[in-house]
Amino acid sequence: MHPFSQFDRHNRLQHLITLEGLSSDQICDLLDRAEHYVRGPGQIPARSQALDGITVGNIFTEPSTRTRSSFELAARRLGGEVINLEIMLSSRVKGETILDTIYTLQAMAVDVFVIRDAEPGVGQFVATHVDDHVSVLSAGEAHLSHPTQGLLDALTIRQHKGSFADQVVAVVGDIRHSRVARSAYQVFRALNVGELRIVAPDGLMPDAGEMPGAVRFDTLEKGIAGADVIMMLRIQKERMQDAAIPEQSDYFARWGLTKNRLKLAKPNAIVMHPGPMNRDVEIASEVADGPQSVILKQVANGVAIRMAVLETVVANRKARQSSP
Ligand code: NCD
Fold this sequence. Notes:
The chain is of the alpha/beta class. It has 2 domains: 24-146 and 300-322, 3-Layer(aba) Sandwich (Rossmann fold); 148-294, Aspartate/ornithine carbamoyltransferase (Rossmann fold), CATH 3.40.50. Helix content is 37%, strand content 14%. It is built from 11 helices and 9 strands. α1 crosses α11 (295-322). The longest helix is centred in the C-terminal third of the chain and has 28 residues, at 295-322. It binds N-carbamoyl-L-aspartate.
């Protein structure tokens, strides 16, 4: 075991567990690299051989549609091999057990582990135990972080708005239980977003000391007024006690983003959602499918961002091995 750092001894990215501590330059480098891999709808996807000879292992113990398939497609489009491990066990896989899994796969020459887990700390724990040539990438850690989602959200905003400094960004909904919101907060702060708003009912707001610098709003109407970017979030029922789960129709009545409410934002505001959406709970279908929605653009950008992150850690590994 060695102490945890995302950076190797040459200060290059080896693991990606959190966006905390990444500079604006480091984030922009990843966005630029990802931009390279973005193609329009209907175009043949970008490919390279950057992961030739490399094997990526997806270890997801929570459900996933977008993140897992995009990590898999990203690895394949870079010429890598992928294995997907199904570990949907009722008793949690932890401690020695997960390490045994990791060591087993490492012995089969898995080079990059992509880990999603409902428990905090699993990615970091694994990263402190793997060999020097191996990388660990978070695909979502409990309610705490989802770094590649934060990056793809930033890329999507940059594509539509050009810059961050003059943007009003409103993150709306169940922020308290959302890893997407926490990574968004970290990336938007690092990139100096003009005004960052968190908009939620009382029970879904993070604790008072969390997310310093973000402006808090307790109604949807006030929170999205004049916004350039609106990011809607799903209610994370799986992270709540039953009693805390809001009634869906009441929630939509006060907190659902409808076409009418959207008129309060800037006329060219974009609407984002990390998915999976609960239509007519946090977002009306006519908005989700409407002209201001960039939700599927986020999905497409997710593949490009994961290609960029995979390419980066593999290039850094090669650099580490050629000049130890
Ligand atoms: C999210 C997740 O799992 O964190 N989805 C995603 O990765 N795009 C958000 C969610 O589950 O609501």
